[in-house]
């Protein structure tokens, strides 16, 4: 379901504790678009998302300094616990400057409610890519990168534990892009959704833009609700979600970058790799 309007109004119609995961990519104020105005009240937002998620939900928020400080303060005041930061590293910098380092990353902050128990780390492991990327346990120690067990202890099953930096091409000149200036790649959103939700859960994106999170939710067997204040992008998002299939999501993520759960899906139904680097 995609609804056009501001999240402050539309969220009021959603029952308490009915959302399992929120993925939010709020406006940063970094583009000339009329809708790209930074939010002014993070306390209100985090409190409302807390109502929707109850005691068991989680939220991922794409954020940047300096207003990220307001987010962390608001989370403490509204019953959220900070879990971790994930970095999306891009191949292209955003915005040329002669005074600062070229910005090639975005911050993604993860928060949970007090009784949240969904952390599907096994589902988002990645394939080892180098001979030196081993998962060997020394006697009496724990494994460093991999998970896999048998009756004798840990084994190397060829999959590496996920790292806090997701390296993924942005959508400049990509067939995946639908023209939204802040559209996120499937390769960034898929691990977040797999890790923090289960089959049949309901995911909310309160500023859904091009609909990437909703497409991922549908492809992975989750329910989805999206809000966007812009009528044009609400229509585009709704159309894009209707046309989404699991195969279409997989086709844009290079095989070597697909997390374990997607690889399992691929083994069941082979998917052609049409990711940007192969176009």
Question: What's the gist of this structure?
Answer:
This protein is of the alpha/beta class and 279 residues long.
Give me some keywords for this one.
8 helices, globular, disordered C terminus, alpha/beta, 8-stranded mixed β-sheet, 279 residues, 12 strands
Number of helices: 8
* DSSP E strands, number: 12
Look at the helices and sheets and give the structural class. Answer: alpha/beta
Order of strands, main sheet, comes to 1-12-11-2-3-5-4-10
Low-confidence sequence ranges: 270-279
Using only C-alpha atoms, the radius of gyration works out to 19 Å
Q: Residue-averaged pLDDT, rounded?
A: 84
Strand content: 15-25%
Main β sheet profile: 8 strands, mixed
Shape: globular
Residues in helix, %:
25-40%
Series of H and E elements: EHEHEHEEEEEEEHEHEHHH
Give the CA-CA distance, first to last residue.
32 Å
């Amino acid at each position: 379901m995609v609804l056009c309007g501001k999240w402050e109004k539309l969220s009021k119609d959603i029952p308490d504790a009915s959302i399992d995961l929120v993925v939010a990519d709020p406006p940063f104020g970094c583009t000339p678009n009329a809708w790209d105005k930074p939010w002014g009240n993070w306390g209100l937002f985090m409190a409302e998302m807390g109502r929707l998620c109850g005691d068991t939900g989680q939220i991922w928020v794409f954020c940047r300094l300096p207003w990220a400080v307001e987010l962390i303060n608001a989370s403490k005041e509204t019953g959220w616990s900070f879990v971790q930061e994930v970095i999306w590293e891009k191949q292209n910098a955003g915005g040329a400057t002669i005074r600062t380092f070229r910005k090639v990353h975005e911050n993604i902050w993860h928060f949970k409610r007090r009784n949240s128990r969904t952390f599907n780390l096994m589902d988002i492991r990645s394939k080892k890519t180098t001979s030196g990327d081993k998962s060997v346990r020394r006697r009496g120690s724990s494994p460093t990168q991999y998970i896999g067990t048998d009756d004798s202890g840990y084994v190397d099953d060829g999959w590496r534990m996920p790292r806090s930096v997701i390296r993924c091409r942005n959508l400049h000149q990509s067939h995946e892009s639908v023209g939204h200036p802040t559209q996120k790649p499937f390769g960034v959103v898929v691990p977040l959704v797999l890790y923090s939700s289960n089959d049949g859960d309901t995911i909310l994106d309160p500023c859904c833009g091009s609909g990437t999170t909703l497409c991922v939710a549908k492809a992975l067997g989750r329910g989805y609700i999206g809000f966007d204040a812009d009528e044009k992008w609400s229509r585009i998002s709704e159309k894009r979600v209707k046309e989404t299939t699991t195969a279409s999501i997989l086709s844009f993520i290079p095989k070597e970058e697909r997390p374990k759960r997607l690889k399992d899906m691929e083994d069941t139904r082979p998917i052609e790799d049409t990711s940007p680097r192969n176009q």
